[in-house]
Amino acid sequence: MNASLESTMRVKSSTEKDFLKLSGVNAVDVGYKYVDGKRTDEICIRVHVTKKKKTVYKKEMIPAEIDGIKTDVLEGTYVPQMLSPKAIDELLSDTVKYRPLKGGISIGPDRSVGGNIFTGTLGCMVTDVATGKPLMLSNYHVMCIDNGWHVGDQMNQPSLIDMGTHADGAGTLLRAVLSSHVDGAVASINSGINSSAAIVDIGNVAGTATALLGDAVRKRGRTTLLTYGFVDGLNGTVNIDYGDGIGVKTLTSQILIRPDTTINPRFSNSGDSGSTIVNGDDKVIGLLFAGSSSAPFLTIANPIGFVETELAVFIEAGLQPNLSKGGLENE
To answer: pTM (2 decimals)?
Structure first.
């Protein structure tokens, strides 16, 4: 980490609590400064607000500089990106049944909440530290939905929203965490079902890496499929509203991704939660869990190091498909 970035993060950490107390502020991070919508090479402290106002009370104004470090104000509200029936007609993409299981595909619990069913993305296969067995990685809010989950809850691939049925059970919920760093869950794989280390349209991953500002990245998700972007912000502290039963949670040290609009208008959308994000070396840098529905359509991800530690899993490089049992579908 260069000295300029390190000092900017230090100042951000000392001031973010004051910013997050202001009305309409939902995130603070360190990233590129934008002028007239165009990215500059300048690194600054960025304050994210629900809506920019033409008139702001003096006590709520964001100073142009803090200890010599410039600031920027970005507009966006960030929400978990699982898919509910409310958006199904608008956002219906990869509903295919995959055997062997792979990363980048539809997955969801076999249970409903309030009469509604949900779907997200199976990010990739990970290895259980304790047993050495492959597990399916996704988000807490995808596999658990709310705090009514139980170990052993069935996971369907494809999900119920994506025309899956109870007979499409691929595994069961093993453990989950919704912490200050991670929105994650893993599920075991049912006996007789094959799994592959590959992510659809990306291939096998080459291990993990720390996200770097400006890194070109890709992800493959259930809804927007293969998309491209770049790391636009680091060290993000973000308030996310998970709804009834959980409420607002604050996650820190998060990664913010901006879409490469020369290729795709958005990096992610509802249903892409749980996708794993890889850099140009095919190394996983983050677990996608939230995003904004308005321009510039930023996506938020948990750093993969925290995910591995808190879920007691790891991602190996160069794994080959585990095809010891069962048949193949859509290989």
So the answer is: 0.93
